[in-house]
Amino acid sequence: MSQVTRFVGLDVHKATISGAIAEPDGSVTEYGTFPNDPSAIRKLVTRLSSPGTKLKVAYEAGPTGYAVHRQMTGLGVECVVVAPSLIPRRPGDRVKTDQRDAVMLARLLRSGDLTPVWVPDEAHEALRNLVRSRGDAKADSLRAKHRLSKYLLRQGVHPPAGVKAWSAKYHTWLNGLTFAHVADQVVFEDYRAVQRAADERVRCLETALLQCAETSAHIRMIAALQAFRGIGFLTAVTIVAESGDLRRFANARQYMSYVGVTPSEYSSGASQHRGRITKTGNGHLRHVLGEAAHHARYVPALKGAVKQRQEGMPKDVVDLAWRAQQRLHLRYRHLSGRVGRPKAITAVAREFAGFVWALGQLMEVPAA
User: Fold this and answer.
1) From CA 231, how far away is CA 289, in angstroms rounded?
2) CA dihedral 57, 60, 64, 70 (to 10 degrees)
3) What is the DSSP letter of 367?
């Protein structure tokens, strides 16, 4: 007996979910709105399931995360989380409601026009949350330093000549600062306390990140990535946390698109025009690969920290890292004089993403 598939579109919000069902015969019915809680979702699955019927559910990725996906999967229902930016939309459609969104998702799911996103498992998502939390803490630390330094600039207070900002000598100089007015002293001490707390927060998160990475199933991939010049521990763990299993990308170009470093294109007929990079992919990956690409300015060499990190690595990993050094340096030298340093760094970051993808094909998939 053949199974009939019912396609369910869900518009998920914090407190409510709107649903719609697309039947195989082409009809679409509205299910209505129900609470966003496990019991209501279980009731939905029970009502729509029947012998000989298979359910397939889709909802948009968003701030509600993957809780609905994980519950649906646990109930034996095929569920996909789709990329909102890649959902086809009619230019003339000017009405948006939760129920209409659910109907649209159900129809597009039935026609196969939705693009699913990668859903990490809970352990991988926890590692990614920690990586992103450390990034937020680093940004807060930078803001705290800016507030303090700009306050000192407004007061006409400058560090002694030769003292580099935020160095050990700079902190010693800050510790000895006093102001004539009580209000100014209170403001300075407040900014200083916030800056110290922000730096301590970064240190604590980095320590926790190191401990979690050591027990992660991806520890071998994190270590292998550090064989590349320009990729240290924080960059490596960010790549792993944001990319997941690199084998899910069929080729290097797909991974480059995921990072968002491929050029945009506006071509029609005989006219072809390529513009700036799309920046439509993962911004965290794009940032760390762009930072790593700056190391391509230097002549290829195997020494120092890079050589130390490569000790004990498989030969194919070391060979790939050496080819990356040579290729990326030549690419930078070739482009920097023609198109300028910023564009050359972007091009190198794109090729760096290709080498990262190639490394992912060499590594074994960690056990679940």
Assistant:
1) 8
2) 30
3) P
How far is the C-alpha of 51 from the C-alpha of 345, rounded, in Å? 57
Under a CB-based contact definition with an 8 Å cutoff, are residues 42 and 73 in contact?
A: no
The confidence band for 334, taking pLDDT boundaries of 50, 70 and 90, is very high
pLDDT in tens, 69-117: 999 999 999 999 999 989 998 888 888 899 999 999 999 999 999 999 9
| Side-chain-facing half-sphere of 291: CA atoms under 13 Å | 12
Residue 1: the pLDDT is 52
Q: How far apart are CA 101 and CA 117, in angstroms?
A: 18
Mean pLDDT (the chain) is 94
Are 129 and 209 spatial neighbours (Cβ–Cβ below 8 Å)? no
The pLDDT of residue 267 is: 80
Closest CA to 214 of 237, 191, 247: 237
Distances in Å between the Cα of 32 and the Cα atoms of 180, 348, 350 are 67, 50, 45
- Helix or strand (DSSP H, E) at 154: helix 122-154
Query: For residue 249, what pLDDT is reported?
Result: 95
Tens of pLDDT, residue by residue over 24-41, are 888 999 999 999 999 999
Question: Average of pLDDT values for 310-323?
Answer: 95
Point out which residues pair with 79 in neighbouring strands: 57
Does position 185 have pLDDT exceeding 90, yes or no?
Answer: yes
308-311 long-range contacts, CB within 8 A, separation 24+ = 309/223, 309/226, 309/227, 310/227
What domains are defined for the chain? 4-111 (3.30.420.140), 122-214 (no CATH), 219-362 (no CATH)
Q: What is the pLDDT of residues 111-136, one digit of tens each?
A: 999 999 999 999 999 999 999 999 99
CA 362 to chain centre: 22
d(CA 173, CA 213): 36
Q: Are 231 and 243 in contact (CB under 8 A)?
A: no
Calpha distance 305→298 (Å, rounded): 15
Q: What is the pLDDT of residue 367?
A: 53
Reading the block at residue 352, the tokens are 């760096």
